[in-house]
Amino acid sequence: MKTEDPLCRKHISAGLFYQLMDAMRRTGKRSTYKNWDKSVPVLLLSGQQDPVGDFGKGVQQVKNSMDKAGLRDVEVHFFPDARHDLLHEEKSGAAKSAVDTMLKWISGKTAS
Q1: What is this structure's pTM?
Q2: Residue 44: which residues within 8 A CB-CB, separation 6 or more?
């Protein structure tokens, strides 16, 4: 599987990398969500080909942690041909699909 992209930076700063790793370490823990309002809906979007999200497995683990923590309305949507930056993957159609998914999800939540 090819994950190189000529439009992505090859180098990131140490600070950005630290923040990314720290956020990933905290995000998947059930204890992260213990103080959250359990009734607030959550939408997780990810490209199925995203190496940062472990090709869907990491995002599914976050959803599972949220479910186990008692969050009652967690949805996850994977976009098959997309990677990490969904809103910039215009050629594959993932950007439009992601926006359409968000708008439909938000409309469904506000209609209740």
Answers
A1: 0.76
A2: 59, 62, 63, 74, 75, 76, 77
Residue owning tokens 């990810």: 46
Q: DSSP class of residue 91?
A: T
pLDDT (tens digit, 9 = 90+) per residue, 30-85?
A: 777 888 899 999 999 999 999 888 999 989 988 998 998 899 999 999 999 898 88
| Token pair in block for residue 93 | 């159609």
Sign of CA dihedral 102, 105, 109, 112: positive
Name the residue among 103, 104, 91, 101 with its Cα closest to residue 46: 101
Indicate the residue type of 68.
Answer: K
- Tell me how far apart the alpha carbons of residues 39 and 23 are, in angstroms, rounded to a whole number: 23
> What would the two tokens of residue 84 be?
């990490």
Question: d(Cα 59, Cα 66) in Å, to the nearest integer?
Answer: 11
